[in-house]
Structure formats: structure tokens, C-alpha cells
Amino acid sequence: MRPLNLCINIFSGFIYEQQITMLLLRRTVQAGKHGRSFSASQTLLSERKGLVLGVFEKEGEEGGLHLTEAAAGFDQTLSGKLSELLKISGPTLKQGKSRIFYGIHKDFPCVAVVGLGKTTAGVCGSENWDTSKENVRQAMSAGCRLLQDLEVKHVEVDGCGDAQSAAEGAGLGLFQYDQLKSKKKNKVTTQLHGSADSAGWQKGVTYAEGQNLARMLMEAPANHITPTAFANTIEKKLAPHAERVTIHKRSQAWIEQQQMGAFLSVSRGSEEPPVFLELHYNGSPDSKQAPLLLVGKGITFDSGGISLKPSPSMDAMRADMGGAATVCASIVTAAALKLPVNIIGLAPLCENMPSGKATKPGDVVVAKNGKTIQVDNTDAEGRLVLADALCYGHTFNPRAIVNVATLTGAIDVALGSAATGVFTNSDWLWEQLQKASVVTGDRVWRMPLFQHYTRQVTDCQLADLNNVGTYSRSGGACTAAAFLREFVTAPHWAHLDIAGVMSNKDEVPYLRKGMSGRPTRTLVEFAAGLVHKG
Ligand code: BES
Ligand code: ZN
Ligand code: ZN
């Protein structure tokens, strides 16, 4: 008996075109080679399971399809019904396009099939990422979201020959910050389908959970994620790994004792006490191994201070702790993966607020290393909190220092959301970061650290340094990096300016609109890459 097909075209979000093939639900469908039959109407709505499958475009054959191993296996159990339906339901599924089939299998009332593009894609020299991996992430994310919208509770996901990327796509695509809404999105559980690579799948799940933790922290309102709440959240997340992790939530008194005058000059305008969060992950069997030092800007709200920001979009400054969020989330992830490396994470956490006690433009403050700083713009606060954290970080003799910060609007002007801007004094470190980002698809791009910019921050009327460049608007991301460099003596240091990648509208198809949690996966991949580097 031939099922009756009804095709509907809809347009939605990132999925440019979908063709939904509906089989009349009450019809009895022949299920597979064993000739079993079932009635789709018997399936309870609350128990509906979904399946997401991938399909490649056949090389050199216009309109040809190449099913993944899992899709081919599924097609076989249906005696070729899936490939038949794919042929008759519309044009060949191009990369990112999807189609849903209802009632074709008794275990999976909803099956989403998504285009994976060409099998030969691989690493692309001009895009600086692995297109095949990106296609898998995008396709599995799109398929899972289609089924989530249909209120499917459990989805099995095609490994597409790259179970890690499939899990990342599924996990990142399904994330939604709706904790504070009365009406929540349907929660979907996922599972690998038709592949034996459960290790790859689990690694992808952990990578996605790491980025989702950073997204959650960044998206949460500033009255919920205060410096204290941030530190407590990370402490809870690290509790299952207590064996390898020590955590210090340093108080204002400790910060004063450390003479972190630059950090304190930012926190003094707020009623919320600052916290200096210090995490030690001891994953290496050699406890003496020099640690990787990660430092994250942790401004839980940046109003600009006395140099107050304009009101429109000021709410986005709840994510000005994105550096701290991605750094801490990557340490949580490294601990979950039991990476055999030592990592120290530092997060100077505070609010930047205007008040009678706040730092005023023109004030001079003293950083931990004794350098004096004229604060001409209180909105350039990230470099102040990082300056003291960098000075303190050097005391651990790290093998490399990477600081991460939503530091300047200027990096957004330069690169937009395509890549994190990297300023580094080390070709070796650049190579490691770049290599990691090709794998994750969360890209980096190298930026200059010329003396040209250093002159613009050392040219200062009252102090050793000015917190803004002489020509404040020009090369703003570069002068900020030059400022930070004045607090670095280590040979392998990189500053990652993530202001441009902080949020997502629709540029990264496997992330919903909102705070992005980028580049957590790149940091984890980078740390994992250091394992065999001595
Ligand atoms: N947190 C901002 C940078 C930012 C802007 C992050 C947009 C994310 C999105 C930072 O503290 C800031 O305000 N920087 C100033 C520096 C300027 C005063 C020299 C900026 O970029 O305008
Ligand atoms: Zn600011
Ligand atoms: Zn800021």
C-alpha cells in the first residue's frame, strides 16, 4: 500500500527551506522487511521518539544522494522506503536543508533527514575550519531542533561518521536559556544512533555542555549572576571533581592585601563585593608540571561607571563576564574529561558601576606590580581588572598564559562574530590556538601587538600608563592589548578579545540567538592539545 504524501513548504529561521512530508497518521504503514504493521495513532504523544539522520550530496552526480551509514541501515530496515521517500518528496537535500517523515517506522514516529553537503568537504584553507565538522554540527542541530519543536521528548542522532561533532551540534542546538520563563521549551534527551563511537559521542556531549555552561552564565541576568553567585556556581560545578580541583574564592580583604589597586578601582563603585576566583585543576600525573594559566575578565555588569554607557543595549553588558565564564567552563570541561594537564584559572569578578565612591575619569590608581595608571575612561575597566590578575598569575610560573575578555567594541568592528581576535607574543602559542580552532570551528584570528600601539598607552600625562589610547577610537582593540602587555613578562602569552563573538544572532547556525559561550570549545581543545607537549 502506498502512503499518501502531502507536502508543505515552510520557512523558518536558519533552515532555509523545509519540506515536510506527512503520512496520514491513521493509515497502517508497512514497517520493514519483516512485514510488521503498526498504527501510528497508537504512539502516545508523551513517548514519541525521534530520529535525526544525515544525507550527503553525491560527488559529481547532480541530484544524487549518499546516505550515511546509520541512514543506510535505517533505510534497509524499511526495505528502501527512506530513499524512495527522499526521491519523491522534493529536490535533493542540499547542505543544511531538512525534511521530516512521519509514521514510517514504529519506533520513530518522526524522522528528520538533514543535508550534510559533500563527503569531500574537510579542512578548508580559506575558511580556517573543518567544513565537514561544521556541516555535521549544523545538520544535527537543525534536525534536533525541528523535533524539539514537535515536542518529541527523546531523539536518536546519526553519528554521521563524526560522533563528536554530531553530539556537539545536538547539544548546542537544543540549548535554550528559559530558566526564568514560566513556559519552558520542551526538554529533549539525545542518544547516538547507528554508530559504535560512543566515546566520540560522549566527548562531544561534554564539549557542548561546557559551552552551554558558559552560555548560561553569560545569559543570566546580572542580579542573578553577581560575583558571589558566579563563584558559587563554578564551585558547585567543580564539586564532582574535588579530587583534582582546589578552589579559592578570594575576598575583598585578600584583594586589598594583594595590593590589586587596579581591580579595586573598578569594584569600588558597586555595592556588590568583588571576588577573585582562583581554580586549580591538577590533571597531570606530574603534579610539578608547570600549569597552563587561564585568566578571564569577570565584569558581571558593565555600566561603564562614571563614563556611563548609553542605555540602548546596556543589558548586554550582563555578559561582560564572558571571559571568566568561558575560562571557568573550560576548566569544568577539562576536569570532566580528566585531561592530564595542570590548569590554573583566575577570574577577577566585580561590577563596574557609577556611585559616589566610584573611580572618576582622570583618577590615578596603582596596579599590583607598582605601575601607575591614569583612568581617563572608567568604561575601559576590563584591562584594569586583568592587569592585576596577570601580575598575580605570573607567580605560578605558568607554561603559557591565555587571558580571555570581552574587552573592546573595536574588535567587533574589526572581525565581527567570525573569529576571536588573538594578540600574542608567541608564534608557538598562536599555532596551538589556531590548530584547536580549526577543529572546533570556533575560530581565532591573529592581530598585531606593535610598539605603535604601546606608545599610545604609555603617552600619559599623570601616570605610567593611560587606560585609553591617545587616539581613543582608532585601533581600540590593539591599544587595549598593548596596555595588557605592559603587565606581562612571560614569553608565551595570548590575549583573546571575545567582544565580537560574545553573542549570536543567526551567524552560527547551530547556536540559537543569545549569548554564545564562545570560544569555550576552542579553549578545551587547546588545553587537550598541550597534553603531549611536555
Ligand atoms: N565591555 C566593554 C566592551 C564590549 C563592547 C564588550 C561591546 C562586548 C560588546 C568594555 O569594557 C568597554 O566598554 N570598552 C570600551 C573601551 C573604550 C572606552 C576605550 C569600548 O570598547 O568602547
Ligand atoms: Zn567597559
Ligand atoms: Zn567591559
How many whole angstroms does the radius of gyration measure? Answer: 25 Å
pLDDT average, as an integer?
92
**Looking at CATH, which topology of the largest domain would you report?**
Aminopeptidase
Would you identify the CATH architecture of the largest domain? Answer: 3-Layer(aba) Sandwich
What small molecules are bound in this structure? ligand BES, zinc ion
Number of helices in the DSSP assignment: 15
What does the largest sheet look like?
Answer: 9 strands, mixed
Dominant shape: elongated
What is the CATH homologous superfamily assignment of the largest domain?
A: Zn peptidases
How many β-strand stretches? Answer: 26
Number of domains: 2
| Helical percentage | 25-40%
Enzyme class: hydrolase
Cofactor: Mn(2+); Zn(2+)
InterPro entries: Leucine_aapep/pepB, Macro_dom-like, Peptidase_M17_C, Peptidase_M17_leu_NH2_pept, Peptidase_M17_N
Protein name: Cytosol aminopeptidase
